[in-house]
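Section handout 9: paired folding examples.
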Amino acid sequence: MNIKKYAIILLSKRDYFEKELKEKLYKKGYSKEEIDNVIKELKEEGYINDEKLLNRYKELSLQKGYSTLKLKKKLYQKTEITQNLSEEEELLSALNLLEKSFKKEKNFINVVKFLKNRGFSWNTIQKAVKKFLDGE
């Protein structure tokens, strides 16, 4: 199958970061030169846009309640681009996660352990627990 056609089929199912798509094409048996050429074409045509995808991925991570560490780990697997959540974004992410996970019992120790085990910074944990337990 034509490499460009195969790449477009992959991209029609979901968006890929450049690094992910290169790995998929390489595993399919295409040469590095062919892959580089088709990636360049797809970028020029607007099929691949790492920055736009990165922003969407960041928004999704906030909704899911990912910490900065978890976001970095996930992105490292998919692309060379690194992204940090701001303190406000990480706090929002922690609060989203707490609201989804703690419906009834809101014990201080359990909430702190829960956030700590998910990689949130101590500063964010303190702010999130205070807001969450005070019901703000």
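Moving on to protein 2 of 2.
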Amino acid sequence: MRRRTQPSEVDPTLLAAVGRVGSNLNQISHALNIDRKAGRAIDLIAVRTLLLAVTRQLATIVEDHSR
């Protein structure tokens, strides 16, 4: 039987930052689903802009915690 390895410790600041980004992504997803179910047009340019912002947030978080 294999032994489970202990997960490495994670910086609480990093965990909180990634959690905030995940929350932002969830809010975007929720809004898109509501609009789609209501039959409203989805502005794909706005969605792309929001996703790029999320990507930038994650890149900044990774950079800040890679030092």
